[in-house]
Design brief:
four-stranded antiparallel sheet; about 290 residues; Alpha-Beta Plaits; Rossmann fold; alpha/beta
């Protein structure tokens, strides 16, 4: 009995040109692959082409070799190319402080099998969540952070991330700003959840800012972290309606649900290789 064929997922982006879809499809056909799903988008203003394509390869072929071959092919047609093996489980680290709602939501979804990943590590600047992290079966590292120790703390974090081969970091209400040195050195995606509908109310205490402005909607934004605070490419956003009767506590309570759902969706899309980043925007293939 033959084994189940592996699947590859590719994300391509680059200058639009005639015949791109045909070239990609023909390459897969000639390699005896079977396309399972394909989607594409064209940015009309910029003339940029985007595609996500998923296909099954022959069970006799090595997925890594096929992925490398497709990557070379993508380069040859002028496309920036990412290729992943479907079902591969990247190692993920969660950064968290004291607020635990997003942390628990991520862990429960992972335990339920919703995320194709290995939750390999939790890093926190406080020790509060060590017991629950260990109950989830995830190693916990406490690295306190102060203004004077921030550089040393980030160096420790980077060392631990490298040691554990972490491929994605999730900031689950980690109430520290990651430096440009940290982000550049890590060199891999970092997803953050911000408790406002960016670009409004960036920075600290966004619910307090929103209440002071008397807004009628609050939101949550999941985005990739960059050196510019709360300015990274947005992955997903959600909003909830509020009224003049709601105080700051109400906003915080309503916002917690938004934060959990927004971060959960963003992480899911990332792990399923559905997100392409260009300039400071994203294309998310549903």
């Amino acid at each position: 009995m033959s084994s189940q064929p592996s699947r590859l997922v590719a994300l391509l982006s680059g200058p639009d040109q005639r015949g791109l879809v045909a070239k990609v499809s023909n390459w897969i056909f000639e390699r005896e692959g079977n396309i399972i799903h394909a989607d594409q988008h064209r940015d009309q203003e910029e003339g940029v082409f985007f595609q996500r394509i998923e296909w099954a390869i022959e069970s006799t072929k090595d997925p890594k070799q096929e992925a490398e071959a497709f990557h070379s092919f993508g380069d040859s047609i002028g496309m920036r190319t990412q290729v992943a093996i479907a079902g591969a489980k990247p190692k993920v680290a969660v950064l968290v402080s004291k607020a635990d709602h997003c942390f628990h939501d991520l862990m429960l979804r992972w335990k339920a099998g919703d995320y194709p990943c290995d939750m390999a590590l939790v890093i926190s600047n406080h020790d509060d969540l060590r017991p629950v992290s260990e109950k989830y079966g995830v190693p916990f590292e406490n690295i306190p952070v102060t203004t004077d120790t921030k550089s040393d703390a980030e160096a420790q974090q980077l060392s631990i991330l490298k040691k554990n081969d972490i491929e994605l970091v999730i900031m689950a209400r980690y109430m520290q700003i990651l430096s440009s040195i940290f982000l550049d050195t890590f060199g891999k995606p970092v997803i953050n959840i911000h408790h406002s509908f960016l670009p409004a109310f960036a920075g600290a205490k966004p619910y307090h800012q929103a209440h002071k402005k008397g807004v009628k909607l609050i939101g949550a934004t999941a985005h990739y972290a960059t050196a510019d605070l709360d300015q990274g490419p947005i992955i997903h956003q959600a909003v909830a309606q509020i009224t003049h009767r709601n105080n700051v506590g109400d906003l915080i309570r309503k916002g917690r649900d938004l934060e959990k759902l927004t971060l959960a969706q963003a992480v899911s899309w990332h792990l399923e290789n559905r997100i392409l980043v260009y300039e400071n925007k994203t294309v998310v293939f549903d």
